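tool=predict chain=A
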Amino acid sequence: MRSRLVMMGELVAGAAAAATLAGFALRLRSSAGFADDYWLWISITAMVYGAPGAFLIRRGRTILGWLFVAVSASAATSVFTGEYAAVASGQGWPSRLVMLWLSVCSWLPAYVIVAAVVPYWLPSGERPTGVFRPLMYVGCASVVAGTVAWALLPWEHSDDRALADSGLVNPLGVAGAEALLQVCLVMVAVAALGGLASLGVRLLRADGDERGQLAWVAAGMASTLLLLVAAQTVEARGSGVLLAASAVPLPISVLLAIQRYRMWNMEKVLRRGLVWALMSAEIALCYAVVVALLGDLLGRSVGAPLVAAAVVAISVAPVHRFLQRGVRRLLYGEAADPYDALGRLGATLETAAAPAEALERLAGDVARILQVAAVWVLVLDGPESRHGDDLGVDPVRVSLVHAGETVGEMLLTRPRAGEFRPAEARLLHVLARQAGAAAHAARLAADLDRSRRALVAARAEERRRLRRDLHDHLGPSLSAVHLQLETVRDTVATDPDGARALADRCATWVAGAVGDVRRIVDGLGPSALDDLGLAEALRAQAARFHRPGLEIRLRLPEQGLPPLPAATEAAALRIVGEALANTARHARAGGCDIDVELTPDALCFSVRDDGVGMGSSDHGRRVGVGLESMAEAAAQLDGKCEILVPAGGGTEIRVRLPRAEV
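tool=predict ok
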């Protein structure tokens, strides 16, 4: 049943459009020209209501859709029959009187339905309730009464002077039918005011997007009614202008409601309807201009129309593409052309001086392309960029992913309709991929900056330690030796035994100074690596922590460990030492296993103890400090350090260090 209704609605709307175009073609054959305000109003009305009405029927808003289709059909009937009757009088065509009668009585439904019925059903298409329902029925009755009154009105009593003076007689005319027109006018006024009141009441009660939709529709409806009322109160010429203008506000207000609030999801119909209407206007204008310019030269009956038809045929394709792009940009802004938007975004990022600046520009460009108030780009462990101060209560969140890893998040102000259009949503995800790469670059830049500052701080700390060791230990030892040697020089002749004792003491101090030098040298780098290699250095490290009550078990690859980059070996020895120190001090463990594995691209090892694990708060705090040091050592080589809590208890440090130089 519904499919039949949909098909019928589309057939009626299509027939109305065809009748309007046929009326336009007949207008070209007549001498009336296009400077006719009534003709302009009725033609525009016929064109702008048919397609939306058919779409509303398809969307299940049947009654409102049929009202729109009825308006279009009524106006189209009036256009076609009126033009046919006008041409038929000069061409001797048949049925002129019937067409004229239809033209006289068929225009009124388009007028009254818009003024007195449609307001009750906007914007949702739901049946009015309370006192407004009978008022809506009054509006429906006025449509029937007015149509009947015009159908029965003797034409000599018509306010259309051309019709009244034509001498033609209404074949169905009934004396006194004009009185019914007065009753109809009162009914239309009552129903129209009731419709406005209905919109006002619902506007006061509504909130959110529904309130915005009603505000736009109410404004358009009020403007339409005011123009219609004004058209009845001014002189003939001016009334035609107002009448023609009254067809414009309601479609525009509905267009704005659709554009801002996605009302009825009619954007596709709106886009195609606009392109179609503009194409029709372009064809008519092109035809008229060519005929006007070349009519005297080539003849207005054959030559100029043929040239005009050729010009129209040649211009259809490029003009259609141009209008499609223009309408899409009008409705969707920069999101209408995703390739162009991506190209301009790429150019913006290309000229950025630094990744952080690229993020700033990215947020601004995304906000402009998608026409939202605020866009924030948040990078994990990195900078953030904020375009706009307020995201609203429920922003749209899009993850930024690079190489399969989430590197950040982009937050956008939610559009008025609640969700982005499908085309905008697809463009947003494409932009998010670009943003993911930019966020990754910003994150790397931030990591590099942190590493640089850490290196500077480490170098300063190392210099301070060296200065302290030289000043506090080696320096005083050498000064004491120097003083004692001077004493030996002065007393060796007079007190040989005392000088010998001082010399022995100096030898002890020099031995201590040599020990200090060795300790300082060891502090600059593990000398065991240079002397023994990583495998033996690890054995020595394990042996140093091995003691009664704590058994250290080291397992190396059977093929041994080949020479690795110095930084990798130093980091491995440092991490193992830190892990064993934590185990010895805090884990209260009886055993600890060190497993070393060599892969083609990395050195992997784990240090696992059977102690109390991370449950102890003191253990956790201290290990947390040590873990930070181990993680930093691994990260400096682009490696990875994890702390795990095995199911059987204890703690496991799992490390992976790349074999290649970083």
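The CA atoms of residues 463 and 469 lie 10 Å apart. Confidence is low (pLDDT under 50) at residues 617-623.
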